[in-house]
Design a protein that fits this description.
It is a single chain. 80% of the residues lie in helices and 0% in strands. Helix 7 packs antiparallel against helix 8 and helix 10 packs antiparallel against helix 11. The relative contact order is 0.06.
Amino acid sequence: DRCDECVYVVLLEQLHRTPGRESDLVRTLERRAEVDLDVTNRKTLLREAASLAEKSLTNVDLAASLTAKLLESDDADLEGLELLARLRGQQNRNEDVAELLSKRARLVDDTALATQLRRQVAELYAGPINDANRAVAAYRELLEFDPADHAARRAVEDIFEKTGRFKDLEESLRQRVDVAVSAEERNETRV
């Protein structure tokens, strides 16, 4: 019976909340989350288990796995997305990090944070992931969000130049002239 199992797991959790039993407690919290039907409770249990796994057990893989389970319950959990991105970064899973940051950028209300997250995504593609096409797409998404972002525009232009995409470079320079605010900016771009 499900209720009997819930009671058993809660009692087991209380027993495992003693020093030195962190590994058992993580497994018990995970099991309790599996039988709990309330999404909020499930997320709280998994968040605690992930925190214990990372900090007490220093097991980044387990912490990431538990956080991924949390996101299965609520894929728009901003705190969970942030935590999993950080953990995936520690695992050098940069493509996963880029995907998580991109998702978080679409969900946050803070425009400055959304811009920062989009920039991190583009920089991951341009840097460690080394995928010029995806870097350009990410920078273009950033430019759609903030057309006056000169650093993003220059980064796209650098990629075009390095990869020999001169027609794209020319188009980007034209766009830079179009969004230039001052005559000095327009003249600098034309040179």
